[in-house]
TrEMBL record:
Regions of compositional bias (Basic and acidic residues) in chain numbering: 1-20, 35-48
Organism taxonomic ancestry: Bacteria, Bacillati, Actinomycetota, Actinomycetes, Mycobacteriales
Protein name in UniProt: DUF5302 domain-containing protein
Annotated spans, Disordered: 1-55
Organism for this UniProt entry: Rhodococcus gannanensis
């Protein structure tokens, strides 16, 4: 592989990485103060119990 082929491949990888990063950055456009996560926990009045089988 010659140096120009190697540089061409590196440039293709850089462009693909830029497209990938740009695509990921577009998904997180939530308005200020609005979160994608709502109700992070279930009801706090009940704690889950784990019991062993006896028998």
């Amino acid at each position: 592989m010659t140096e120009s082929e190697s540089e061409h491949i590196k440039e293709q990888f850089r462009e693909a990485l830029e497209r990938k990063n740009h695509q990921h950055s577009m998904h997180g456009n939530a308005p200020a103060g609005d979160s994608k996560v709502h109700e992070t926990h279930g009801p706090a009045d009940h704690k889950r119990e784990f019991r062993r089988k006896s028998g």
